[in-house]
Structure formats: C-alpha cells, structure tokens
C-alpha cells in the first residue's frame, strides 16, 4: 500500500519539516508518498494504429502491470535537491500566524500567476535506494548513503535527520492506479509536448478507494487516506508511459498541509537483458497551511541489478536475507576505545559546497593523538579518519525580517569556531542585515590505523562546560539550543556566514570529539 513517510526531519508538513526547525514552529508531520521509481516495461503489442484511446490505455496498462511483475531486484542512485519557499506578500501574514489562513486562500494565492515567493533554504541528498518485491506491486524499499554498499532495515528518516525526504513504494502507486477497477479514466486528446506527440489521459480515485495515505502527528501515528487525481501521458506509438502527474485533494486541517503534487518522467533502462521504463526525474511539491511551499527535485541514475558489493535485507520476504558481498576481504579486527577520551580532527580533503550533498564521504586525520587515562598513546597523531556529510544546507537572506523574528526563527544552532573566530552572536547579527549562510553537519565513522579501518563511536565536543556563577560578577550565558532529539550529538555542526554559492570549505577545518562507550 503506498504510503508517504516524512518525519520531523523529513519532507514534512509545515512544522515538522526540518526546514521547519529553523524557521517555523512545529505544526504537523506529514508523510509524502514517494511514487519515486515506479517501474515500467515497454511492451509494444498492438501499438501501431491505436485509434481508440481506450485500446491505447489498455495496452499502456498491460505494459505497466507486466513490468511490475517481471522486475528484478535493483538499486538506483537518487540525488534530491530540496528547497523551501515563503510568500513575499506581507498581507499573507507573518510566519507565526500564517497557519491560521484557510487552505482555499493559501492555495489560491500560491497559484496566482503574479505571486512572488522567497527562497528560504536549500540542500541536497545523495542516496542509493534498493527495491525488491515479494508480491508484485508490494515492494520493500531500503536506503543507504550513495556508495555505502550496505543496506539494512533502517528507515530513511532514521538516518536523514534534516530537511525534507519522502519515502514510500516504487511501483505501488502505479499498481494502485492500474491494478483495480475503481479508478475512473478520461481522455483529453493528443498534443505535442517538447516536440513529442503524446496522448493525455486523466484519472481520479476517491478517498474511499484510496490506498494513498497521509501520515501525521508528532509520533507519525495518525493517518488518513487521500483522494487524488492526475494526468497520464502515453506515447501512442509504443504505449509507453512518459509522464505521470498526481494531485491530492485538499488535506485535513490537522495535517498542517493543504495540497501535495508529484510529477514523474520516465525513460528506458536496461536491466537483466531487458528494457524497463524507470523514472528519470521527479518533482514532489507541497503547499502548507502556513503559506510556505516545499519542493523536492529528484534525479535518478545508475540503476542496476544487485551485482555490486552490497548487503541487502528485505524483511518483506519472510525475513529472507540477500547478501552480495566480497567474501575475500579480511575481517576487520575487533577494536574499541575507552569512553571519554578527547581528540581533534583536521579535514584533509576540501568540500565544494556547490556540488556536495548529504551522504558524500569526508576525509580527515587526527590532529592530536588519542591517549588513555594514563596518557598512553592508543592511536597516533596523523591517523586517517573517514566520515560522511549528514547535512549541507543553505539559508537565505530575509531583508524584511525584524531582529526579533530572525532570532525566533533560528533557535539554537549547534556551532563551533570557524577560522579561529567564534560564529556571530545574536547581538552582532542583529547589527547588520542577515546574509546567506551555510550549515554543514558531519559525522565520523571510521578510524584507519594498523592497516585496517575500525568503527569509530564518538560524539562531537561542543566546548560547552558547566561553570560556577559568582555573585556580583557579570552574568554569562551559554546557548544550548533546542532539546529536539533529532539533533544528534554524534554530528558536528559548522556554521559559515556570507558564503557564495561556489564556496569551498578548505582542508584544515578543525573539530573536537570525544569517544563514547561502545
């Protein structure tokens, strides 16, 4: 059953969007169905002179259902560019009270041809997604960072803690549309789109028949089926699906969202010595009840069968475990550092922020050796360290925002010293117009010494320390920020101010860490 997943860190409705955490108060969590990767094969049967639109649609459905049945297990790389917008028109209300606007007014304003909106934030994810089926149309999705070559049963929102992500089924939406007799279709004529003659069909599914679920609530424990309609574009010569557009009916007020839409474009990919139609790109958009808008632009590439060094687990297949791994590689010796040992790391490979994405690897080395409580060296200075970008996000200027509003939108970012200088305090930021900023979050994963990589279980050392407050002395305040559990202590957060779109984080960036109990 298709179901969209979002979390307080994912592609959630107004509030629980992790764009939300910096600019909006939480309102609701919504899960967005990702019809991402609906898989199709192009059978050309009876495709030559299909003058009856119903016959053409029947042939397209046959191709779609046939390909869903025959698809091998496969994986693709997907790059997700995520953006968040807010309206420029101040008559639409402030961020703090926009959520009170009726959805009819909010959607009408968003659809105006002359409407203006302001880019609030943007970031990028690079992921591998693996798909397997135990029952046709009922597939299991599993995600990992691109190139990690290891899949488990962890949900996407359990390791992508920031921003908007959508998870769900790859071909279940197509199965839901074409695999039943409740969907109502219509024909709207043939027209040329980008120089290509396509036949246009409409469809609609009522709420009672819908398996398209909208999940919301702080614990993602509430859901409601959504009525939806859309448009299908078919090549009349081959009966191939070319584009699928999905639009939901207006959502319930408690979800915090007004309307969702998805557009998926398809192209041919060869798998298992056969041609299949796989998504090339997708756009997932949401209009929220606080008048903000979210867009995820997804590019799919490098789709292939499970023939690489990977570990795959599909719990839907009777707990079956499929492993494709290099058994000749020697096992890494067991290694554990005692907890509470401090050390520093220097970045050794620059990060080009114009190209970087969450999921990309990072490289560093120990600036200081790791010593035990007796000052004995356990790991020498200069040992190689590997990690991963967990989030790389840009926040854009709001020239109209007052100081108080700016502070209200940006509570408690984790920060460290940048270039030897502390990040701008709230007082210094308020003295000048806000400039675009970049927030980079990194997690360390392995430590390489003795010729082998070893898992590294460490936490970022923020530098905050308790202190005694003396009477009569000037007061001192240390920002702690939100106690949001999604703010992982094992992730270092670096904040850069006044950066250009092509800014490069040079090697030499320093951070402090402390070992944790295994």
Characterization of this structure:
- This protein has 518 residues and is mainly beta.
- Helix content is 10%, strand content 39%.
- It has 6 helices and 26 strands.
- It has helices spanning 20-23, 53-70, 103-111, 172-178, 403-409, 426-430; strands at 74-87, 117-135, 138-145, 184-193, 196-205, 213-216, 222-225, 228-235, 240-248, 257-271, 274-288, 293-305, 310-313, 321-324, 342-347, 351-352, 361-366, 370-371, 377-379, 384-395, 437-449, 452-455, 458-460, 491-497, 504-505, 510-515.
- The chain has an 18-stranded antiparallel beta sheet that branches. It has a two-stranded antiparallel sheet with strand order 6-7. Strands 13-14 form a two-stranded antiparallel sheet.
- The longest helix is centred in the first third of the chain and has 18 residues, at 53-70.
- The protein is globular.
- The two termini are 38 Å apart.
- Mean pLDDT is 75; it is low at 1-48, 93-98, 314-331 and 400-433.
Topology:
Layout: H1 20-23, H2 53-70, E1 74-87, H3 103-111, E2 117-135, E3 138-145, H4 172-178, E4 184-193, E5 196-205, E6 213-216, E7 222-225, E8 228-235, E9 240-248, E10 257-271, E11 274-288, E12 293-305, E13 310-313, E14 321-324, E15 342-347, E16 351-352, E17 361-366, E18 370-371, E19 377-379, E20 384-395, H5 403-409, H6 426-430, E21 437-449, E22 452-455, E23 458-460, E24 491-497, E25 504-505, E26 510-515
Antiparallel strand pairs: 1-2, 1-12, 2-3, 2-20, 4-5, 5-8, 6-7, 8-9, 9-10, 10-11, 11-12, 13-14, 15-17, 15-26, 16-25, 17-20, 18-19, 20-21, 21-22, 21-24, 23-26
């Amino acid at each position: 059953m298709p179901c969209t997943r979002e979390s307080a860190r994912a592609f959630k409705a107004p509030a629980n969007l992790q764009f939300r955490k910096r600019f909006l108060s939480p309102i609701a969590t919504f899960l967005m169905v990702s019809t991402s990767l609906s898989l199709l094969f192009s059978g050309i049967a009876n495709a030559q002179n299909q003058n009856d639109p119903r016959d053409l649609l029947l042939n397209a459905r046959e191709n779609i259902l046939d390909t869903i049945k025959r698809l091998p297990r496969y994986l693709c790389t997907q790059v997700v560019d995520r953006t968040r917008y807010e309206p420029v028109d101040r008559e639409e209300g402030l961020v703090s009270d926009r959520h009170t606007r009726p959805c009819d007014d909010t959607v009408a304003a968003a659809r105006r041809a002359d409407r203006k909106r302001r880019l609030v934030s943007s970031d990028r994810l690079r992921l591998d997604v693996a798909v397997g089926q135990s029952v046709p149309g009922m597939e299991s999705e599993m995600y990992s960072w691109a190139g990690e070559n290891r899949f488990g049963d962890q949900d996407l929102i359990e390791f992508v803690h920031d921003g908007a992500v959508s998870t769900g089924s790859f071909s279940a939406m197509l199965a839901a549309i074409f695999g039943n007799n409740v969907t109502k279709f219509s024909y709207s004529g043939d027209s040329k789109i980008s120089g290509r003659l396509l036949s246009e069909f409409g469809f609609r599914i009522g709420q009672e028949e819908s398996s398209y679920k909208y999940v919301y609530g702080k614990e993602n424990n509430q859901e409601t089926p959504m009525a939806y309609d859309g448009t299908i574009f078919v090549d009349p010569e081959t009966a191939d699906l070319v584009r699928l557009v999905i639009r939901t009916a207006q959502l319930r007020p408690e979800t915090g969202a007004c309307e969702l839409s998805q557009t998926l474009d398809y192209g041919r990919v060869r798998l298992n010595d056969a041609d299949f139609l796989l998504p090339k790109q997708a756009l997932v958009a949401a209009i929220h009840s606080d008048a903000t808008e979210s867009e995820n632009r997804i590019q799919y590439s490098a789709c292939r069968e499970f023939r690489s060094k990977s570990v795959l687990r599909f719990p839907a297949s009777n707990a079956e475990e499929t492993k494709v791994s290099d058994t000749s590689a020697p096992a890494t010796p067991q290694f554990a550092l005692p907890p509470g040992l401090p050390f520093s790391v220097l970045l050794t490979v620059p990060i080009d922020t114009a190209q970087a994405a969450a999921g990309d690897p990072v490289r560093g080395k120990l600036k200081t050796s790791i010593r035990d409580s007796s000052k004995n060296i356990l790991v020498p200075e200069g040992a190689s360290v590997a990690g991963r970008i967990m989030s790389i996000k840009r926040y854009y200027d709001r020239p109209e925002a007052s100081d108080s509003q700016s502070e209200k939108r940006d509570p408690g970012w984790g920060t460290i010293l940048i270039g030897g200088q502390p990040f701008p305090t709230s007082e210094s930021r308020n003295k000048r117009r806000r400039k675009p900023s970049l927030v980079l979050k990194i997690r360390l994963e392995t430590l390489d010494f003795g010729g082998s990589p070893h898992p590294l279980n460490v936490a970022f050392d923020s530098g905050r320390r308790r202190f005694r407050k003396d009477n009569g002395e000037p007061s001192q305040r240390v920002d702690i920020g939100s106690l949001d559990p999604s703010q992982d202590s094992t992730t270092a957060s670096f904040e850069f101010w006044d950066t250009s779109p092509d800014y490069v984080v040079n090697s030499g960036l320093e951070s402090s860490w402390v070992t944790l109990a295994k």
